[in-house]
Amino acid sequence: MENLTLNEKQELQDCYFSLIRDIKNGDILKGKIVEIGPKDVMIDIGYKSEGIIPISEFHGPSNISIGQEIEVIVENVEDEDGRTLVSFNKAQKIKGWKKLSGGYNEGDLVDGRVVKQVKGGYMVDVFGVEGFLPQSLSSFKPMPGKDPIDKIIGESFNFQIIKLNKAKQNFILSRKDALKIEREEKRKKVWEEIAVAQLRKGRVKSITNFGAFIDLGGIEGLLHIADMSWKKINHPSEIVAVNDELSVMILNFDKESGKISLGLKQTMPDPWSDIEKKYPIGTKVKGKIVNILSYGIFVEIEKGIEGLVHVSEISWMRKNVNINEIYAVGDTVEVKIISIDPEKKKISLSVRQMEKDPWEEVEGKIVTDEVVRGKAIGFGENFGIVDLDLGVEGVVYTMDLSWTRKVNRPQEMLKKGSYYDFKVLRVDKDNRMIVLGLKQMRTDPWPEIVQRYPLGRVIESEVVKVTNFGVFVKLEDDLEGLVFSDEIEADMLQNLKAQDRLKVKIIKLDAKNAKIGLSSKVDEIPAPEAA
Predict the structure, then answer these.
(1) Confidence of residue 146 (pLDDT cuts 50, 70, 90)
(2) Residue 271: its pLDDT value, please?
């Protein structure tokens, strides 16, 4: 520079100043960041001095970098300290407002970022300009256990401009109305896209007894319970839950009514195809009990394939089976395939046919009048069920339990799980029945009873039970008689109770029906004739 002539120095100076921009307050210029300090950012705007921007305008140094080009507005070409002050935020706002007011109107949708919460709502940044979002139009719902503000501040959403005042440069937004528009657009798009047999993703919105409603993205379809699974289910909740994401098939739809029928099982192979080839009649398989009803058990032999073991196919012998005493849901059982109806998707199974029919071995091994030992395993209204050898069962009726006692229920004489000796009274192979007798294990005592208790005999007895038709009294162990109601004074009948002593006279003997008739009118009744 020292070797230059005066003219050369002047020319160089004129050239330097010709490259410097002629700027003024309010100009929007492009510049390049050249330095990032703890408080300020220096930007080259082509002027004789760099522009200065407070770093706070960038929300931290991590959002900018050296060499980055940005637009700024000149706030003061030269302040009292000789610095050139520029603003990044104000330039963004001016540009943003021009873009917003020039290209958008009320009702339009815009993207915006929620920047802070204020009284009555939120401030939203749109193109660098902040607009107001009223709380009532935000659609922001609290999250359980979380502050809703933490979930939305800094997040971007779609909003609708519901009021735009270009003169005052302010505007009001609505997230609620934007969501309505988004949903409607989604609905239109889905209706344009769907087709029968199409697979679509959906989310379970609600569940009813007859099915589940699936949100396909703006529109809902019904997934009926019959189309949820190839296997039988009792309630949709066995297959789906609210908010589950599913892949479903469009089975049918009607745009006018807005109804869509969906299928879930149709997205999987039909396990019933070629079922007869897979399980020929007579096949033995293992399965899991999935349901127990009064008429039988349902057994799942593979996923989606269930068969019924009817109550009549559980045991060769027991006709009155209490299924819940034998099986529980989840039990594994071995069964035989006995019939298949592919059209109705029904399979009949058998447990008893897994074993040989025990009646084929009964003949010649259990005969009338022989003595057999058996265990009491169950009871009916007037009979007991006895488990015998060879896997068969017998039945003993209450009238064959005692010669002398009046037995109303078999439990009065038999204890479940206990063993007794019985006499075989009848073997009916055709009806699969073995009739047993307990009282027949001892000699009929009635010929002797008739001798011990002749008509007209007067004896002391003990009251056992008082009824409206008479009084039962104990004559000896396991031997009772009935004092008829018309054979006892009314006031005496009213005052009698169990264990009272009562003098009675024998007035009737019926050995065939094991009955003894008595009278308490000892002194008034002549001895009648034997029955």
Answers:
(1) low
(2) 84
